[in-house]
Design a protein that fits this description.
mainly alpha, 84% helix, 0% strand
Length: 208
């Protein structure tokens, strides 16, 4: 895979996994009653925290796996299975990135930027697994990791724009429009998950 292909794959993967449009209804529901200034502050902090978490996993993920004795191929399979589960929920428009207890706690919290917006809505398990896999695939390229981080930053920028425009965007799309976009992205994510599992199995068989 050349550097340009890696960049395209990184951007599309993180766009599908993070799904900026899918975060909009949750943000509108949790930030209801806040002033525009406060909503902007919450959106900005959520994206920055999520970016820090994703960057940490991209940079330190390989070190963590090595110390746990986990191969990248095994992680690809695990990540693919996890992403496929998330994709099924997206196709059924039943994305559950938090439990009912977590949602209740979030509604009672004054600051929702770190939880549940940054984690697990933006930097969820699927996004963390994807950025670690992409970072592993970027190793053959000198600027590969920087490219993965840059494309992730672009997607987070789109996520911030979606949160800033959450109210008018949600009004324009409606719940049906959000569900349609989420289902399309879910199908793409399912195919990506299957590819991750296939690549992981192929790698384990070759290593064995």
């Amino acid at each position: 895979m050349d550097l340009a292909a890696l960049g395209v794959k990184s951007f599309l993967t993180m766009l599908v996994v993070i799904d900026p449009v899918g975060v909009v209804p949750v943000f509108v529901g949790l930030s209801g009653g806040r002033s525009p200034e406060d909503s902007r502050r919450v959106a900005r902090r959520a994206v920055l925290v999520a970016g820090g978490v994703l960057a940490s996993f991209a940079v330190g993920g390989a070190w963590l796996l090595a110390h746990l004795g986990i191969s990248m191929d095994a992680f690809r399979i695990a990540g693919g299975i996890l992403l496929f589960r998330i994709a099924v929920g997206m196709v059924l428009a039943q994305r559950e990135r938090e439990t009912e207890e977590e949602a209740a706690e979030a509604r009672n919290r004054a600051d929702i930027s770190v939880f549940p917006l940054a984690i697990p809505l933006i930097a969820g398990p699927g996004a963390l697994a994807s950025v670690m896999i992409l970072a592993g695939e970027s190793r053959p390229h000198r600027l590969g990791l920087a490219l993965v981080l840059a494309t992730t930053a672009v997607v987070l920028g789109l996520c911030y724009a979606a949160l800033r425009l959450a109210v008018p965007l949600g009004r324009i799309l409606g719940q049906t429009g959000v569900n349609v976009i989420t289902r399309v992205l879910g199908v793409l994510l399912a195919a990506l998950a299957v590819q991750y599992v296939a690549d992981g199995v192929r790698g384990l068989l070759a290593a064995g």
